[in-house]
Amino acid sequence: MSDNSVSSLQTQSAASLPNQSAASGDQRVKFLVNSELLSDVTFSVGQNGTLIYGHRFPLAAASEVFYEMFTAGKREPPSSVNGEPIAVPDIEPDTFLEMLKFVYYDNPTIREDNLVELYYAGKKYNLSGLRSRCQQFVCQEEASVIKVFTANVKHGFEELNQACLKTICANPLVIFRSSDFLELPLELVEKIAVQRKLRCNDDQLLDALKRWAQHQDGVVDRHEALSRLKALVEKQQELNRDYQCRKWLFFGPICYTVDACKGTFHVTALKHLDLHGVGIYVGCHENEMPVSMSILVMSGDKMIRRWQANVPIREDIYVYDCMFERISLRTNSKVTIICDGPRKTDGPLKKFTFWNRGFTWTGDNSVLKLEDDRNYEHTAIAYILYRTKDSRDSF
């Protein structure tokens, strides 16, 4: 074995291989990864030239780049495939080995710290399946998305950026409260700020951008950066935000009342779905003031989400979207959504509400089952925002 080989890569010699006759196909192929047994090509990988052994047939079958390299020498000098190792200085040995695991038996280990380099290897050798696997990891591993998003600055792969932004848009309030978000460079925060499909309202987005700016002392000019970000958000406000959620809509007799606008709704999921927020009708007569509003989501006696903010009450009637962190419900899961409005106001504020009498909900009856609690006479809840597990984002 060459002195340049790294022991941690577990190079297999023919003598060290056990009898694999009883093993599964995947297990038999697994022993060929970085094995000298029947190896007919060698790679000098990374800056230190670590030797990794390969086999032309599986490599050529998986990648047209390897096929052309081995059959016509179009991608590498002829000497690289005639006795001399093929130099791969731009990929680290551990990453190259994971790529071989994908080629040989379709089981690479993808982590947040190697994903971007694996994606690079998939690009270089035209392994579309490996690139897709990396994108799937980003979509499934929410906790890793910011680290991957940041690591991709080096290469700027647009498909990987889009996968990261899709994951961020799907549950942004979780991302915003992470410490990784505060470490993002301005160019990536700008990419997030212009996304129309963020499942948060503009107030929540601006609050997150302010927290990010406050953390940038000595990194960038905080005031200038925040001004740029606010300008981007204001430009996006000209367009309607697209949460890509379905709505359970509430209809009933309307009125203006000085009573507290409350509402309690028991929700049973008839299939797997995610809850993302509720719409609150706001509007009043001859007043313009904020009203403190709380949204609580309960599972039995346990509070699983709480959202609280000042909701702007204006003379015109509109719906204010109260978004919260994604709540995933399994079939037959039950939650209670409580809209807790102000008990008192400083003046005779007459708020726009629905009578909690003769109401009706409209929506897909195969998805949700809702039953109201009529302890409160009025409610300002306009709809519930949800997504079924089979929904697909357009991006």
TrEMBL record:
Coiled-coil region: none
The name this protein goes by in its record: AAEL009292-PA
Pfam families per record: BACK, BTB
GO biological process: neurogenesis
Every BTB domain range: 39-112
Lineage: Eukaryota, Metazoa, Ecdysozoa, Arthropoda, Hexapoda
Matching CDD domains: BACK (cd14733)
Domain of life, source organism: Eukaryota
InterPro entries to which the protein is assigned, alphabetical: BACK, BTB/POZ_dom, SKP1/BTB/POZ_sf
Gene Ontology CC: one annotated term: cytosol
Chain positions covered by the region annotation Disordered: 1-21
